[in-house]
Automatic annotation (TrEMBL), chain A:
Keyword Metal-binding: yes
Subunit: Heterodimer of a catalytic subunit (MsrP) and a heme-binding subunit (MsrQ).
Co-factor remark: Binds 1 Mo-molybdopterin (Mo-MPT) cofactor per subunit.
Chemical reaction(s) catalysed: L-methionyl-[protein] + a quinone + H2O = L-methionyl-(R)-S-oxide-[protein] + a quinol; L-methionyl-[protein] + a quinone + H2O = L-methionyl-(S)-S-oxide-[protein] + a quinol
One term of GO molecular function: oxidoreductase activity, acting on a sulfur group of donors, quinone or similar compound as acceptor
Cofactor: Mo-molybdopterin
Recorded family membership: Belongs to the MsrP family.
Gene Ontology biological process terms, A to Z: protein repair
The protein, known as: Protein-methionine-sulfoxide reductase catalytic subunit MsrP
InterPro entries, per database record: MsrP, OxRdtase_Mopterin-bd_dom, OxRdtase_Mopterin-bd_sf
Amino acids binding Mo-molybdopterin: 62, 65-66, 120, 155, 203, 208, 219-221
Domain Oxidoreductase molybdopterin-binding, first and last residues per copy: 82-237
């Protein structure tokens, strides 16, 4: 399932949201339409090994410093975040800049489920069944102009609703960015759901980025602004500690974080005696994304 | 007077009671780790809790002599127990890190060498070993004045431990900075010039 990203569906195939939200129906539908060949079957089988983490692990073990630095803080504190109504500003080098309401975005996008590995820079991981749409579709809707080389993102900053931002743990608001080819890559999605349910606030409601081959902190949560820029945008963790958190932040078992090894990871939910498992290059998405970095020194561009 | 009342009560408390009470968190934390009370990922949480308690005990230990000097509260009888307990918690913290978290000896060694925050944490532990080993009456008699000087190692240990905490925290966080400030404050009370000022 995780590799089912070669999107054969377009907005023209738009089916009712409920149908998209059910992975079994999508599988059945796709196979019935003959869209899935032998290769697709093989991929689906291979991907069966990805067992999604428990809902409780996904929603109760979070890094979302706007709600506190403890892993349980976001689940405890994020209920105060108002996610309706929600507006995302899309600006910069786009043809159609403006305020986009969540309803507007949801109506225009094609939703599907993506079961992705999720690897935190702190060397823990999960497998998450996201529901969402490709960022490329949203950028296409906004109309990226010729000079647009990067995409910058910004998280909501609401001191009344986010207890964590009352202390300068990071330079708020949280900002992140991608190079345009990374942003346009079909693996890169905007998630609005998990396990076919509306994404909980602690996981980045109402809409967050998911870039599965990069460390989790690149996948910015509760997005209020998307700006297409010519220059590489600043990113929060790079500003806080550039030596440890580079712009690219691709999952790479060969390049250690200065304070810990990245060669292995622990799957959250295994309990007190869980074994570490080896970390995969680009978090297991090497075939799909390695070409984006051809010719680049991944030690210098970490 | 309050100090006298505390001293009276403290005289009746046996030191073994301090050990028992202070070690209660160990089984409680293990039980919580097994039953989800420490969150969805118990290894890191357990490691952190044990380290935090160790640091708190180091601070309690550093409070004992200023309490006597400036407030007349005499808890010196318990200082050894507090120190030994701090060592026990550091040892447990280290074991959880090495056995449950890092899991293999080569990775433990690599981390100690390559990661400065682990190096200083390990340095703090190594400095604690001679203190723990000499925490008995025989050593005190045998070492004489050397014992007192040896146990001044508590000061660098406290600083290393709090820097270890600051260093491992991501971003600019308040809690580890509070620990360092408290420790530096307690050490400042031992600077002779300051002692005179506060006492006067």
């Amino acid at each position: 399932m995780a590799h089912r990203w070669k999107n054969t569906l377009t907005r023209a195939d738009a089916t009712p949201l409920a149908a998209y939200m059910n992975r079994r129906q999508i599988m059945a539908g796709a196979m019935g339409l003959g869209l899935m060949g032998a290769a697709g079957m093989a991929r689906a089988q291979e991907a069966e090994e990805l067992v999604p983490s428990a809902w409780e692990d996904i929603t109760q073990y979070n890094n979302f410093y706007e709600f506190g630095t403890g892993k349980g803080d976001p689940a405890r504190n994020a209920h105060t975040l108002t996610t309706e109504p929600w507006t995302v500003v899309i600006d910069g080098l786009v043809d159609n800049p403006g305020d986009y309401s969540m309803e507007q975005i949801m109506d225009a996008m094609t939703f599907e489920e993506r079961i992705y590995r999720f690897r935190c820079v702190e060397a823990w991981s999960m497998v998450i069944p996201w529901n969402g749409f490709e960022l490329a579709d949203l950028l296409t809707l906004a109309g990226v102009q010729e000079g647009g080389k990067y995409v910058a993102f910004e998280t909501a900053l609401r001191p009344d609703e986010m207890p964590g931002v009352r202390f300068p743990t990071l330079d708020w608001p949280y900002v992140e960015g991608l190079r345009m080819d990374e942003a346009m890559h079909p693996l890169t999605i905007m998630a609005t759901g998990i396990y076919d349910k509306t994404i909980p606030n602690q996981n980045g409601a109402p809409m967050r980025l998911v870039v599965p081959w990069k460390y989790g902190f690149k996948s910015i949560k509760s997005i209020v602004r998307i700006t297409v820029t010519e220059d590489e945008p600043p990113t929060s963790w790079n500003k806080a500690n550039g030596r440890e958190y580079g712009f690219y932040s691709n999952v790479n078992p060969e390049v250690d974080h200065p304070r810990w090894s990245q060669a292995s990871e622990r799957v959250v939910g295994g309990g007190l005696f869980s074994k570490r498992q080896p970390t995969l290059m680009f978090n297991g998405y090497e075939d799909e994304v390695a070409s984006l970095y051809a010719g680049m020194d991944l030690r210098a561009n970490y | 007077m309050l100090a006298d009342r505390i001293n009276q009560v403290a005289r009746k408390v046996p030191t073994w009671a301090v050990y028992i009470v202070s070690l209660i968190p160990v089984p409680v934390l293990l039980y919580m780790a097994q039953t989800g009370g420490l969150g969805r990922e118990p290894i890191g949480a357990l490691e952190h809790k044990l380290g935090e308690i160790a640091l708190q005990l180091v601070i309690v230990g550093l409070c004992i002599s200023p309490l006597r000097r400036f407030a007349g509260v005499n808890l010196i009888r318990f200082r050894r127990a507090v120190g030994v307990l701090a060592f026990i918690y550091v040892l447990l913290h280290l074991l959880v890190w090495a056995v449950l978290d890092v899991q293999t000896l080569d990775r433990v060694i690599a981390d100690v060498i390559k990661r400065p925050y682990i190096t200083i944490g390990m340095a703090a532990f190594v400095l604690m070993v001679p203190l723990a080993l000499t925490s008995n009456n025989m050593s005190v008699r045998w070492l004489g004045p050397v014992w007192r000087r040896l146990h001044l190692l508590t000061y660098p240990i406290a600083i290393l431990a709090s820097v270890h905490f600051i260093w491992l925290s991501k971003g600019f966080q308040l809690e580890p900075l509070v620990y360092l400030s408290v420790i530096l404050g307690l050490l400042a009370l031992r600077v002779p010039a300051l002692v005179k000022k506060v006492a006067a």
